[in-house]
Amino acid sequence: MLILNLTKSEAGQYPAIQVYSGPEIPAGYAWWPNSLEQDTFEQYEGFIIPTIKRGTVSSYQPNTEAWESWQASRPPEPEPGPAGDTPTYADMASAIKKGANSV
After folding, report:
1. Which of 21, 60, 66, 88 has the lowest tally of Cβ within 10 angstroms?
2. In sequence order, what are the residues at sequence separation of 6 or more whose Cβ sits closer than 8 angstroms to the Cβ of residue 4?
3. Over its length of 103 residues, how does the chain's per-residue pLDDT go in tens digits?
4. In 38-67, which positions are buried (b, 16+ CB within 10 angstroms) versus exposed (e)?
5. What is the pTM of this model?
């Protein structure tokens, strides 16, 4: 069975949906039916607004406002370095053959 931890982060993000094999759903969690798609949950990285009825997530929608705010607060992805900055396997093998102190 799949379950959703109902404790959101400060930013409003729900943790990843979990596989659970216990006999009862733990407190603080809701059952996520197999019939409920997860693509939108993953696309918005857990920033959702769930509708929960009797301990079951019956539907949800993306919380685009919280997701966009979170995206804007993240540092930018580092630019890739110029080609040749990262040694290749061949470079490392050659250095080992020459001796580790020559690098």
Report:
1. 21
2. 14, 15, 17, 18, 29, 30, 31, 32, 50, 57
3. 999 999 999 999 999 999 999 999 999 999 999 999 999 999 999 999 999 999 999 999 999 999 999 999 988 888 876 665 677 788 778 878 887 655 4
4. eeebeebebbbebeeeeeebeebebbeebb
5. 0.72
